[in-house]
Design a protein that fits this description.
With about 200 residues, the chain is of the alpha+beta class. The protein has a single domain, classed as Protein Transport Mog1p, Chain A (3-Layer(aba) Sandwich), CATH 3.40.1000. The strands form two sheets. Strands 1-4-5-9-8-7-6 form a seven-stranded antiparallel beta sheet, with helices on both faces. A hairpin with a 4-residue loop joins strand 7 and strand 8. Helix 2 packs antiparallel against helix 4.
Length: about 200
């Protein structure tokens, strides 16, 4: 598999972060060390995804916390990750057995950044059906000029009663990967979803 790197430069997205306290990082007479800066976000359009496949396995731990916080526009208050075979709450008082690996980051205000990959293999024909399903709801509209997210793929914004969700989903090899950002307002949401899904794709490969 070709490495997934920004098309403009061959560099790794996930960097090592060092966060130090004064007591832990200062020597006698030394000034406190500055924390490492977070790497700049990478847009989906800057990635070469022509031959990318994703692993149908747990990938939540590979997503940088900074990417989740950028998507939420706030600090992560809690997470609700799950794996294949877990009992997952799909809606209020509705649970089901999961057949995917999923990640969920939630802010104090209720904003959410999510990602999931199906555990079973997905064929190209089934992927086309999933793309059609994503575009079908009347409350959903295609994101203008959205970057490709696998083949085939869909990128939509869907309005709820008190929130808006922007999501990308697509087929990479035989893995169906999806990602979404939910906020109360649409301002800045498409860009946040683009960058979030870029981070998700790089973590899931």
């Amino acid at each position: 598999m070709r490495p997934l790197v920004p098309a403009s430069a061959a560099r790794l997205f996930v960097a090592a972060f060092v966060v130090c306290t004064t007591a832990a990082c200062t020597g006698s007479g030394d000034e406190p060390s500055e924390p490492s800066a977070a790497p700049p976000a990478t847009a989906l359009g800057d990635l070469d995804t022509s031959s990318v496949t994703v692993a149908r396995a747990d990938f939540c731990g590979a997503i940088p916390k900074s990417a989740a916080e950028s998507a939420l526009g706030a600090e992560v208050a809690r997470t609700a990750h799950y794996g294949n075979g877990d009992s997952v709450e799909l809606a209020a008082s509705v649970t089901d057995v999961s057949h995917e690996f999923g990640c969920r980051f939630v802010s104090e205000s209720g904003a959410e950044a999510q990602a999931w990959v199906f555990a079973p293999q997905v064929t190209r024909a089934r992927a086309r059906e999933l793309v059609a399903e994503a575009k079908r709801p009347k409350a959903c509209k295609a994101i203008p000029r959205a970057a490709a997210f696998g083949t085939p793929s869909a990128a939509v914004t869907c309005r709820g009663k008190s929130s808006v969700t922007a999501s990308y989903r697509g087929l990479f090899g035989d893995g169906w990967l999806a990602c979404a950002v939910t906020r109360k307002a649409v301002a800045g949401l498409p860009k946040a979803a683009d960058q979030w899904c870029s981070a998700v794709l790089q973590a899931a490969r």
